[in-house]
Hints:
single chain; alpha+beta; four-stranded antiparallel sheet; two-stranded antiparallel ribbon; 5 helices; 12 strands; 24% strand; globular
Amino acid sequence: MHYEATPDTDIPVEPRGLVLIDSGAQYQDGTTDITRTIALGDITEEQRRIYTLVLKGHIQLDLCKFPDGACGSQIDAFARQAMWREGYNFMHGTGHGVGSYLNVHEGPHQIRMEWRPAPLHAGMTVTDEPGIYLTGKFGVRIENTLYIKPYKKTDFGTFLQFESLTLAPIDTTPIDFDLLTDEEVKWLNNYHARVYEALSPHLNEEEREWLAANTAAVNR
């Protein structure tokens, strides 16, 4: 799940299967951390199912609302519930803070299965990166960096929500739409509309055409 290519383990990138790219950079106005898994060609039904379970986890965590001061361990199951039902899991954290001019992995708050009591508050950043990795086969991870912001105040206190800071297309080719709910399809279409609206003014005509094709609305 934290693979690094070596002369003994690397394989050629070919027009088949999936490729997982975890990348990021540091800019004058912040730090990025993003992972996309992309279909390079024909994929198996197993790859399609795993990809969709990971996407469901990514979307459900992004959609969750939670009380101010809740810790990441209390919301971690949002990202895992769909895969747990199918007997899958991943053994790394679901999210970590991202520093500006600091570390890509910036604590103390985390979202993970193991208990981490650091509270979540508005103004924090945290990643959303569930994954599934099958030894000797392939791995899938989808990661955005999220911003924590206010949601609403009720008699039970202040509630928070997430807003994605990462704006990049999510590959829809490997999705098994029979596994997505209407809410999850709506999230995906809304996210892609936002990606296109934000990025297209900065692109040339060829780039805008590519972006339009890769952020087009989808149906179940």
